[in-house]
Amino acid sequence: MTPVNPCQPSPCGPNSECRAVGDSPSCTCLAEMIGSPPNCRPECISNSECSSNLACIRQKCQNPCIGACGANAECRVVSHTPMCICTVGYTGDPFTQCLQVQQDVPREPLSPCVPSPCGANAICREQNGAGSCTCMEDHFGNPYEGCRPECVVNSDCPSNRACVRNKCQDPCPGTCGQNAQCQVVNHLPSCTCDDGFQGDPFRFCAIQQREPIQQYVNPC
């Protein structure tokens, strides 16, 4: 006699597998199926079979947020459906990409002195919304064209003055030594010893030593 296969036909029902164990059938559910034969079934067929924070994906209740949102976006599940929103400080399509919000940087009010309308050696001050130019201290000239110091070289000064630190000044103070007099000749100090004195007038003049006059003595 031909042996009888207890799994033909299968007594296990749908989504199950039958194995012959001796002369009896042994039924088990297929992989990823739940329940027990003959009532094997997938975990879900529709979303309603899953909890509200999961969705039925490939017959399994899974998190629908995985891979649903774009960069810089957050996902929330509402009634089995993924909802994507851009994170705080970002904007755009949350399902594609969210970009950082560009905040307008407050601009400083324009200054009429930047760039300066003044010439060289001049100072700009805002006055009634316009730039007002004045020469720097100890400088002269048209501040809108350029200011200059009182002098740059000696020839800018009278002949009895010298250009000292950009100002026409008497070059004599502190130049000559003791007991000497100073005169300015063509902007330069010239020192001479006082009458009755001799020596280096730029350092020190000493009293001139006079030889004693010998009186004539009559030998008679």
From TrEMBL:
It holds the Pfam family Dumpy_DPY. Residues 3-41 form the EGF-like domain. InterPro entries: Dumpy_DPY, EGF. Keywords: EGF-like domain. PANTHER family: DUMPY, ENDOGLIN-RELATED. This is Putative dumpy.
